[in-house]
Write a structure and sequence with these properties.
Distance between the termini: 29 Å
Strand content: 15-25%
Number of strands: 6
Protein name: DnaK protein
GO molecular function: ATP binding; ATP-dependent protein folding chaperone
Number of domains: 1
Pfam family, one: HSP70
Shape: globular
Largest sheet: 3 strands, antiparallel
Strand order of the largest sheet: 2-1-3
CATH class: Alpha Beta
Helix content: 25-40%
Order of helices and strands: EEHEHEEEH
Oligomer: single chain
Number of helices: 3
Keywords: ATP-binding, Nucleotide-binding
InterPro entries: ATPase_NBD (IPR043129), Hsp_70_fam (IPR013126)
Length: 108
Amino acid sequence: MERRHACWRTPRGDRTTPSIIAYTQDGETLVGQPAKRQAVTNPQNTLFAIKRLIGRRFQDEEVQRDVSIMPYKIIGADNGDAWLDVKGQKMAPPQISAEVLKKMKKNG
């Protein structure tokens, strides 16, 4: 039995998509390369390396290091988990990762 494997491609033909999401000032949500380009002009609302925060406590040493070096705002949730503040909205890392996948599926 022969199996064929398909490689999903972006509308631009890329085989990989960076796990980066950007929330623009006009309310648009960008994922992948378009989001990566936003990092220069919109660093506070361009999120990357979010998966490293999943399951982490805000007070963890690694999270506190990220708080000091990341351009976006990492905050402590009511339960002590590390969350993000995006344009005044509190968001959990799994929620952001799900948005990346949802946007990729929609655009793909």
